[in-house]
């Protein structure tokens, strides 16, 4: 279990969201613990085929969120189709290739928040987490 002590960043852990019965992806669980919305597992049917990803992180990077994969080859065949999916002229899906956590995974809250700030909040301003810039 990961214990967070970064109250000064405005972070409030969400332990009630922990899904013990399932084998939850560690990155997905971290985002849930930060109070963020995810869809796991995530799949998207495109003309280029189906994207199957560990999860979609909502409200970041694009209007529908960031598709998180652990292998760029999982998303590479779909890049052109992803660029074509737009809403009001804005991309619907971004993507990121993260390192898949192993049993020795060492979580770094500051780096995670920096990454989230880099992706950018795309949700409503009133729902923007206080730990984001």
Features:
8 strands, 3 helices, Trna Endonuclease, Chain: A, domain 1, alpha+beta, 133 residues, four-stranded mixed sheet, disordered N terminus, globular
Q: Major β-sheet, in short?
A: 4 strands, mixed
**Beta strand count:** 8
Q: Provide the CATH top-level class.
A: Alpha Beta
Continuous helix count:
3
Decide which structural class fits the backbone: alpha+beta
Sheet with most strands: strand arrangement: 1-4-5-8
Overall shape: globular
Order of helices and strands: HEEEEEHEEEH
Query: Nearest-angstrom radius of gyration?
Result: 15 Å
Please state the average pLDDT score: 83
Number of domains: 1
Low-confidence stretches: 1-22
CATH second-level architecture:
3-Layer(aba) Sandwich
Q: How large a portion of the residues is in β-strands, by DSSP E?
A: 15-25%
* CATH topology title: Trna Endonuclease, Chain: A, domain 1
**Percent range of helical residues:** 10-25%
Distance between the termini: 27 Å
